Amino acid sequence: MGKKMLIIIGAIVVLFIALYFVVDYKNNQALDNSENPYGSKELDQATIDQLDDPLYQNQILPEQLSETLNNGEEATVYFYSPVCVYCQNTTPYLAPLAEDMDVDMKKFNLLEFGQEGTAYNIESTPTLVHYEDGEEVARLVGQQAEEDYEAFFNEYVLE
C-alpha cells in the first residue's frame, strides 16, 4: 500500500512540474509574440493575458504620462487594474465608446504601476481622468453607465 501511495504522489508532483513549465512556456510565447508596451517581461499574469486583447491597447507608461503632463499637453487617461472586477465590467463598453467617439484614451495599468499611480491621486479603479495644459480638469471614479462616459467625453474631451 505504501509503494502505491508513493507512486501516486510522485506522479502528481511530476504533473504539477509539467504544468508549471507549460504555463511558463505559454507566457513566454505570449510576451515574445505580442506588442508588449510595458518594456518588461516581468508582468503579472493578468496583464500577460491582456497583451493581445484589443480592449487594452493604447497603454501609457508612467514616464510617458509624466512627460505629457509636464509638457502641458492634453490627455485622457483610464486608470484600471486587470484584476478589478469593476474595470473588467467597464472596459468592454468604455474602450469601444472612446474609439467610436475618436477619443485618444490612454490606459494606465495600475496592477503594473500602482506606486506611480499615487502621484495622480488614484484611490480606486476604474478612474477616468482628463487633463488639459498638464492639469486635471475632470474625473469619473468607479464603474459608471455608458451614458456617463459619453457625457464626460462630450463635455471635457470633445469641446
General description of the model:
There is one protein chain. The chain has 159 residues and is an alpha+beta fold. The protein is 52% helix and 15% strand. The chain contains 6 helices and 4 strands. The chain has helices at residues 2-33, 45-50, 62-70, 85-100, 110-117, 146-157; strands at 75-80, 105-109, 127-132, 135-141. A 4-stranded mixed beta sheet has the order 2-1-3-4, sandwiched between helices. Strand 1 (75-80), helix 4 (85-100) and strand 2 form a beta-alpha-beta unit. Helix 4 crosses helix 6. The termini are far apart. The mean pLDDT is 87.
Helix and strand arrangement:
Blueprint: H1 2-33, H2 45-50, H3 62-70, E1 75-80, H4 85-100, E2 105-109, H5 110-117, E3 127-132, E4 135-141, H6 146-157
Parallel strand pairs: 1-2
Antiparallel strand pairs: 1-3, 3-4
Helix pairs in contact: 4-6
Key structural traits:
159 residues; 6 helices
Concise summary:
This protein is α+β, with helices and mostly antiparallel strands.
Count of helical regions: 6
H/E series: HHHEHEHEEH
Low-confidence stretches: none
Give the radius of gyration.
Answer: 20 Å
Strands side by side in the biggest sheet: 2-1-3-4
Mean pLDDT: 87
Q: Residue share in helices?
A: 40-55%
Give the structural class.
alpha+beta
Strand content: 15-25%
The major sheet is characterized as: 4 strands, mixed
